[in-house]
Design brief:
Chain lengths: 891, 388
């Protein structure tokens, strides 16, 4: 079909008659500003073909001019199958008129014209007007070009008819289309993506419940059977327990055992007694035997001890000889040392004397000083002067007494030391001869006496001559010096105290203490006048000072007297004397050290000899003690019995022990079963009875319990319920298997149908796709278009990537939609059907580059298909190169 | 003395392969047969009914099931019921029989749970002794009837044995166990040995019979069967006397339902009509029938459709129940079948493909599915055609 001209009279906005003619075979473009009436032109073309002239429909009535409402008319000239046609319609409702004339002179009016038009252009008619069908797709109204190519049912049928004519029958027709849906519905009702549905799911759910019920009932069934088995066993056990027990026999047996126990207790006491007796006898015999053994042992022990004592006696004699030899050497040294020490003593005496003189000088100085103080307070001192003098007159003090006591003690100690080592000379002479004997010129005190001698002593015997005894005493010199020093000290102490004896000193001291006590009372008053001097133990107070002075003077007087001084010597002369005396002392000390060193060797030998002697004597004394002690023990022991008596007693006791043991064995043999064994048996029998009674009670309880449990469960008929549950489970299992099979069958059927249908559609879409592809290459090289079974664009494939149509840009969508329309038109033409493409304001969204490509596409398509482009974009579309059209007022 | 000999009532048995409604009816029939036995006894003038084991299906039955059976027995006051445990309801401590014994049993119901001769009647001065051999376990190695040889009864007494198990060396039905010597009746001086366990009625010898189950419960045909009628459905009326003559044994029908097992091979669509005729001829009242129908062979799609309509949806619905197995029935779609579906188009392509898969014997399961799919497609296509 090719449209040649369109003429509108009083149509919509057009008042009067306007024409567009000279429409060419290929691409035509009508450029006009907005509101020119381009869309109205398309509407008029539609109206001429599809709207019935007599239509009273509202949208047909709307063709009238808005203002003048005159009858609109449209004339459309077109060529089909090599003939020229003109359709002229006046839209006047019931008075409307349609006329179709053909170049072959045929003329059709009104309904005939409408029918012929339908036949020519292949659309179906309705009561009010035709269904545009595929024309609705090819003629794109303003604002609709960019969407997908939507084919209504009629248009689809047209295209399918067209395609099937080309590729053969591929679909199953109307019924064929419904089958996959029905199968899918059936399958969906049965099984979804997430598993079974509907009745199938119900069955699966119920099977799960049924299986659980079977498990529960099976467990319950087993439990009841277990109760039955347990009950049977318990009854059997109970019967055995009762059958195997004789209460009376058990009681008698227990009583018998208790009687046995009483007898056993008595026997056990007898055995215990016998055991004690045997034990005692054994102990006594053992003790007696031990006494015998000890005595023999003691006698035997004495013999080696006495031999050792004898040996020690010999050793003692040897040691005494060695001691005598050493003593001689030591005595020589000691004589020398004694001389030196006498000199040292004299020097010391001189030292002490000089010290006293120095004290006197010091006292004198102090007294002089104190006198000055006392003179100042003479009045105060007067009262106590006398007392002070009296105290001062008594030289004896506590210290003096102590000194005298110590000197007395030392003298006694020195005497004792001397007498310890002195050689004792004993005399035994007739009384009438006593006067004939003089010891150191003195007569002996008694006819029989003994005297110790330390030094060389001469015993003169009238008419006989003299015997000189010179004891060799070690340290004799030192001992003598000690005694002399002690005697001298005592003399000095007595002298210092101004007394003759210790007793006089003690009495004088006591007197003096009394004076001091009295002086102290007065001193408290003098303290206020005289501060006292702690360093000199001088109490505060004038009295004290006076006393002190008097004391000093008293002492000075005594000291001067003692020192035999008439006047106080000069201090320098005194110092010289003291120094000389000290020098002498040092010299003597050095000489003593030398003499000591010389005597060290002999003294050590003597010491060793004495040590040896002492050791021997100590051992002898110890051994002697042991021997004496043992002898004493033995003697004491023998007083209680002789050795023979002792042995005899032991044997008697041993015999007694044997007798006691024999008696014990006999008792033990007679004892019989032990008490422990009988007790254990009694305990066992008692426990057995207790166990028996407990067992009876326990089994009876269990029987009662199990019987109750069974009776409680049996009414339910667990096994019968189980049979029912198992039947239900089996039924459901079968049902589910059937559902599975049905679903598998439906799935296979659906898969097979869909595969076949998909293949068929691919085949029948191929002609459309093959017509789109050349244009697509021009527009988007390397791309493919994907159409769905409804001939709609599903996607675009670029570089192997699929892009769904919906996500493409508006421009691309519009371009693809135009291409597809061109392909449809070509396909229709190829099948000898009329097709013209009209695009009203299409490609509005295309960019400059793309629109150039689209122009190329349109021009190429225009070689086969008549294309009419309506646009307001004059400048742009001048590049299309299409034949220009104009709307002109008819002349 | 006349008595009815029956066994294997197995009251409470479930029938899992039928829908619950049918299964309930079949279960109910097993209860009802007690009354049938009672009525038969009364009608024949029999004074006792001996049930040789398996009165109940299991040990733990509901009170309703037990009570109903016993109450049915009670109602026949002139008839003494002698019940003995079998392998399904064997004796066990505190089990079903203890429970029955504890219940208020009617005087006309006797339980025989221990071996040993028990006098059950006096037949004109001759004491009648029953020697039961109850089962204490599901299966026993020993011949429990052995004791009957030595168990004394008074001179002139009529000795009737009752046992449950398999007669040794006599056939081999099912899992044979609890063997009984075939010569037991003679050896033990029994005038009659009433056997239970086998559901088929069998005469072992003149003095030893299996009564079979009084109500059929399985699709099992007797050996060398000439009809499709399955085992069970009858009891025995037995008359004995002191003369030790061969007892008079008469089968009596008791079953409410008749069970048939029918196997047919269909190779032509026309055979469907003959099958339908055969089924309809089985009984005047088809609702008394329980059918196990197994068909094999090959049918076209149209034949299969006719089979469904005439047999499954037709006569099949008249039966009390029908178990149907068509796993051996293959489909062989003809060209006409396929043309009926469509002459061209993708549906026809799919049909052709399914036919190819269905014909591929190398994958039986898939071939079967494909055949079913093809059948479905055929039906669906016709259905859509009918709608459009």
């Amino acid at each position: 079909m090719k449209i040649r001209s369109v003429e509108l009279t009083n149509f919509r906005k057009f008042v009067g008659t306007f024409r567009v003619d000279c429409i060419g075979d290929n691409v035509n473009v009508l450029v006009g500003r907005n509101e020119l009436g381009k869309s109205t032109l398309l509407e008029a073309i539609n109206a001429a073909i599809f709207e019935k002239a007599k239509s009273t429909a509202a949208h047909v009535k709307a063709f009238r001019h808005l203002a003048n409402q005159t009858v609109p008319e449209v004339k459309l000239a077109f060529d089909v199958d090599g003939k020229s046609w003109l359709i002229h319609k006046r839209f006047a409702g019931q008075a409307g008129k349609a006329m179709l004339s053909c170049s072959d002179q045929r003329l059709f009016e009104d309904e005939a014209a409408e029918a012929e038009l339908q036949r020519l252009l292949g659309f179906s008619g309705g009561r009010s007007g035709g269904e545009p069908g595929i024309w609705g797709t090819l003629w794109v109204q303003q604002g609709q070009s960019f969407g997908d190519v939507e084919l209504n049912e009629q248009a689809q049928r047209t295209m399918q008819g067209c395609l099937e004519a080309q590729v053969g029958l591929v679909t199953g027709g109307t019924r064929g289309q419904k089958i996959p849906k029905a199968v899918r519905d059936a399958l969906d009702a049965l099984r979804g993506a997430r598993g079974p549905r509907g009745r199938f799911k119900d069955a699966v759910d119920k099977l799960s419940d049924a299986k659980q019920q079977v498990i529960d009932l099976e467990a319950k069934r087993q439990a009841v059977f277990q109760f039955m088995e347990d009950l049977g066993r318990n009854k059997h056990d109970l019967k055995q327990e009762l059958d195997g027990w004789d209460e009376n026999a058990h009681r008698l047996e227990l009583e018998g055992e208790r009687t046995k126990r009483t007898v056993a207790v008595t026997r056990a006491a007898e055995v215990g007694s016998a055991r004690s007796a045997a034990k005692l006898a054994l102990e006594r015999a053992t003790q007696a035997r031990k006494l015998v053994d000890d005595r023999v042992k003691a006698v035997e022990e004495l013999r080696p001890l006495e031999a050792s004592l004898s040996e020690l006696g010999a050793q003692n004699d040897a040691a005494l000889a060695a001691q005598a030899d050493a003593q001689v050497a030591v005595s020589k040294g000691e004589a020398k040392l004694a001389d030196l020490r006498i000199k040292t003593t004299q020097n010391a005496e001189r030292t002490r004397k000089l010290e006293r003189v120095r004290n006197v000088v010091t006292l004198s100085a102090e007294a002089t000083q104190h006198q000055h103080v006392i003179d100042t307070s003479a009045a105060l001192e007067l009262e106590r002067q006398h007392l002070g003098e009296m105290i001062g007159a008594i030289a004896a003090t506590d210290e003096g007494v102590t000194r005298i006591e110590e000197a007395v003690t030392e003298c006694a100690a020195a005497d004792a030391a001397m007498s310890a080592v002195a050689t004792t000379v004993s005399f035994a002479v007739h009384d009438d001869a006593r006067d004939s004997i003089l010891v150191d010129g003195n007569a002996i005190a008694a006819s029989a006496s003994s005297m110790p001698i330390m030094g060389k002593t001469t015993v003169a015997i009238a008419r006989v001559g003299t015997i000189t005894i010179e004891p060799q005493i070690k340290n004799r010199g030192a001992l003598l010096a000690r005694r002399e020093a002690a005697v001298q000290e005592m003399k000095d102490a007595l002298q210092a105290a101004g007394v003759e004896s210790l007793a006089a000193a003690r009495a004088a001291t006591a007197q003096r203490k009394e004076h001091v006590r009295r002086l102290s009372d007065i001193g408290k008053e003098l303290a206020r006048l005289v501060p006292g001097d702690k360093s000199k133990k001088l109490a505060p107070g004038l009295d004290a000072l006076r006393s002190h002075l008097s004391e000093l003077r008293g002492r000075l007087k005594v000291d001067m007297k003692a020192c035999e001084l008439t006047e106080i010597p000069a201090e320098s002369a005194l110092a010289r004397d003291i120094q000389e005396n000290l020098d002498d002392g040092a010299r003597l000390e050095a000489e003593i050290k030398t003499a000591d060193a010389e005597m060290a060797g002999p003294a050590d030998v003597l010491l060793q000899a004495e040590k040896k002697l002492r050791q021997v004597r100590e051992r002898m004394a110890g051994l002697n003690g042991t021997i004496e002690s043992k002898k004493a023990d033995l003697a004491a022991s023998r007083t209680s019995g002789s050795d023979e008596q002792l042995a005899s007693a032991a044997e008697a006791l041993e015999r007694e022990a044997v007798v006691a043991d024999t008696l014990l064995i006999e008792k033990e043999r007679e004892e019989g079963e032990s008490l422990e064994a009988i007790d254990a048996r009694i305990k066992r029998l008692e426990r057995a009875a207790s166990n028996h009674h407990q067992s009876i009670a326990s089994l009876s309880n269990e029987v009662t319990r199990l019987t109750a449990l069974i009776e409680a469960n049996e009414g339910a008929g667990v096994e019968e319920m189980l049979l029912g549950a198992e039947a239900e489970r089996d039924r459901l299992t079968n049902t589910i298997a059937e559902f599975h099979e049905e679903a598998d069958v439906l799935q296979l059927l659906l898969d097979t149908l869909e595969t076949a249908e998909g293949e068929a559609k691919t085949r029948y879409l191929a002609p459309v796709v093959s017509r789109v592809e050349p244009y697509l290459k021009m527009l988007l090289p390397g791309s493919n278009i994907v159409l769905d079974e409804n001939l709609q664009i599903a996607a675009l494939q670029r570089s192997g990537q699929r892009e769904d149509f919906e996500v493409l840009s508006g421009g691309t969508k519009e371009q693809l939609a135009v291409l597809t329309r061109l392909a449809f038109a070509e396909l229709l033409l190829g099948q000898g059907r009329p097709a013209t493409v009209i695009l009203d304001d299409a490609l509005a969204f295309s960019d400059d580059e793309r629109i150039e490509s689209m122009f190329d596409v349109l021009m190429r398509a225009g070689e086969n298909v008549q294309i009419i482009v309506l646009t307001c974009r004059k400048r742009l579309f001048t590049r299309l190169g299409a034949s220009p059209l104009e709307i002109r007022a008819a002349s | 003395m006349k008595f009815i000999h029956s066994s294997d009532l197995q009251i409470g048995k479930a029938f899992g392969y039928f829908v619950p409604e049918v299964a309930n009816i079949l279960q109910d029939a097993r209860q009802a047969v007690v009354r049938t036995l009672g009525e038969a006894a009364v009608e024949a003038g029999a004074t006792a009914v001996l049930i040789a084991g398996d009165i109940f299906e299991k040990q733990q039955m509901s009170q309703q099931t037990l009570g109903r059976a016993i109450e049915n027995m009670r109602s026949f006051s002139t008839v003494q019921w002698h019940l003995m445990p079998g392998n399904h309801d064997h004796v066990r401590e505190s089990g079903l029989w203890d429970r029955l014994a504890r219940s208020q049993l009617p005087a006309n119901v006797s339980l025989h749970v221990r071996p040993g001769a028990v006098q059950i009647a006096d037949d004109d001065g001759a004491p009648v002794f029953l020697l039961p051999a109850p089962l204490r376990f599901t299966s026993s190695v020993d011949d429990l009837t052995a004791y009957m040889n030595d168990d004394p009864t008074p001179e002139g007494a009529i000795r009737i044995g009752m046992a449950h198990g398999s007669i040794q060396g006599f056939g081999s039905e099912g899992d044979a166990s609890n063997y009984v010597a075939p010569t037991r009746a003679d050896e033990a001086g029994l005038v009659y040995l009433a056997m239970g366990d086998w559901h088929r009625q069998i005469k072992v010898n003149d003095r030893c019979w299996y009564s079979g189950t009084p109500e059929p419960d399985q699709f099992k045909l007797p050996p060398n069967a000439v009809t499709s009628l399955c085992n069970g459905g009858s009891a025995l009326l037995v008359e004995v006397n002191r003369s030790r003559m061969v007892p008079s044994v008469t089968p009596i029908l008791t079953g409410r339902h008749q069970w048939h097992r029918i196997e047919r091979t269909l190779t032509e669509d026309s055979q469907i009509n003959s099958l339908e005729t055969q089924l309809r001829a089985l009984n005047s009242d088809l609702s008394e029938l329980v059918i196990d129908l197994r068909v094999e062979g090959v049918l076209s799609l149209s034949g299969r459709k006719a089979f469904e309509e005439q047999i499954v949806q037709g006569v099949g619905t008249a039966f009390r129940a029908m178990r149907f197995d068509d796993s051996g029935l293959a489909l062989n779609p003809t060209e006409q079948d396929l043309d009926d579906i469509d002459r061209a188009g993708f549906v026809r392509v799919a049909a052709d493909r399914l036919r190819l898969i269905a014909a591929d014997a190398s994958n039986g399961a898939r071939a079967h599915t494909a055949a079913q799919a093809l059948k479905r497609l055929y039906v669906e296509h016709l259905r859509q055609g009918a709608r459009s």
